[in-house]
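Bug report (template v2)

What were you trying to do?
Predict the complex of my protein with fe (ii) ion.

What happened?
Run completed; filing so the output is reviewed.

Input:
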Amino acid sequence: MRILFIGDIVGRPGRDIVFANLAQLKAKEKIDLTIVNGENSAHGKGITQKIYRQFLENGVDFITLGNHAFSKKEIIPLLPDLDRLIVPFNNPEGLGIGARIYDNGKIRLCIANILGEVFMNPPAFSPFKAMDQIMETYPDCSYFIDFHGEATSEKELFAHYYASKLLVCVGTHTHVQTADERLIKNCAYISDVGMCGAYDSIIGRDIDEVIAARIQEEKTHFKVAMGPAELNAVVIEIDESTKKASNIKRIQIRPESSQ
Ligand code: FE2
């Protein structure tokens, strides 16, 4: 079984590059299951129902989120109906469903989204408590975890602590792809998958606006940067007979002008 996981999709440039490449990428990599992180997909913060539907129409199976899960308030009353949306299990708002089951008859996969707590707004409870609760609530599963956190050290700690119990642990949130993909025991791991968004940007945001906000201390909206985009993802191979990850490979598509 082959899983495609696409990192944080930032605004329109991120959505456009994903929709332009997804079908081809899935065919080329013989993908069985596609998961994306959509927490920045609507104007850089949150997700809307329209964008949720677009993801599904374009071949995405599940959408994970992060600390901006509920930035677009319109999504909150719709949560019970959006059964492919996976909110952070330990989100401080206590909303939605933080884990979903995918079962293809050979493997029963629990896909969950967990917030880190280092250099982040405090989640409802620690990522470790979240993982323990997930295993208690969804026993007899293989676990795919999108760990949405800022600190590489926290992600490595989490992955090593749970490696023998996890199938996949992919980091999101920093928007910069790390080159540390590896297998830790049975678990495919990478500290951060990286983002899909404008290449000339500060993690997907307009460079001038970030400078104005941080250096000139002006009030800005940190608007999403426009222009040619990059796409960052990983492909994970699972041996369904042993229920172990056997490979993780990084995917990076950059604008031609940057090569
Ligand atoms: Fe985030």
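What did the reviewer find?
The chain has five helices and 13 strands. The pocket of fe (ii) ion is lined by residues 39, 66-68, 148, 173 (CB under 6 Å).
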